[in-house]
Amino acid sequence: MPGHDTYHRLITLLDTTATPYRLIEHEPEGGTEAVSALRGHPASEAAKCIVLRVRTDRRTTRHVLAVVPGDRRVDLDAVRATYAARYAGFSDPATAERLAGSVPGTILPFSFDPGLELVADPAILVKPWLYFNAARLDRSLAVPGPAYARLARPRTEPIAAPARTLG
Predict the structure, then answer these.
(1) Using CA atoms, how far apart are residues 98 and 113, in angstroms rounded to an integer?
(2) pLDDT per residue over 59-109, tens digit each?
(3) Sign of the dihedral defined by the CA atoms of residues 130, 65, 50, 26, in that order
(4) Which H or E element spans position 117?
(5) I need a labelling partner for 79 at 20 to 30 A (CA). Which of 43, 52, 90, 115 fits?
(6) CATH level 2 (architecture), domain 4-161
(7) In whole numbers, what is the pLDDT of the chain averaged over residues?
(8) Could you give the residue ranges of the DSSP H alpha helices within the chain?
(9) Tell me: the pLDDT tens digits for 128-154?
(10) How far is CA 68 from the centre of its chain?
(11) Does residue 166 register a pLDDT over 70?
């Protein structure tokens, strides 16, 4: 089952480091807005986690896990500038699942794979509680933003942009 090992690995990490967290069970959901409503918090307190492909030159592709507030979107131009890259775009679902250890919609704001670089927008790190699906559609975690920063140790760069509005 994708995510099962990743879920247990994260819980073990949180427990062994005495990191405070809350476990939240809910109906299966992977969309940020919908799962935030199920968990009972604004989308701005959610971690939106997106696996990206970043090409720094013709021969070099890096995989980046971008983490932004749930009410924002990943600014691909900012990611491209951060890595001085020629291209930044979304990874295909199979690669994202392999590197993140869970299916899209359940990706953690942590990287347990050395081939997946973690970069987070600074707004994520200051949230009193940061909410995210825990490598499962039916279970989420809430971790204090500063505790997340200490534990995950992401590269911090301004990579979030306002969500696009329709109409």
Answers:
(1) 9
(2) 999 999 999 999 999 999 999 999 999 999 999 999 999 999 999 899 999
(3) negative
(4) strand 116-120
(5) 43
(6) Alpha-Beta Complex (3.90)
(7) 94
(8) 4-16, 32-39, 76-82, 93-100, 122-125, 145-152
(9) 999 999 999 999 999 999 999 999 999
(10) 7
(11) no
**CA nearest 46: which of 129, 131, 122?**
131
The helix (H) or strand (E) run that includes residue 24 is strand 22-25
- The CB-based long-range contact list for 77-85 (8 Å cut-off, 24+ gap) reads 78/157, 78/158, 78/159, 78/160, 78/161, 79/52, 79/54, 79/119, 79/159, 80/54, 82/119, 82/155, 82/157, 82/159, 83/54, 83/56, 84/56, 85/54, 85/55, 85/56
The helix (run of H) or strand (run of E) holding residue 83 is none
End-to-end CA distance of the chain: 40
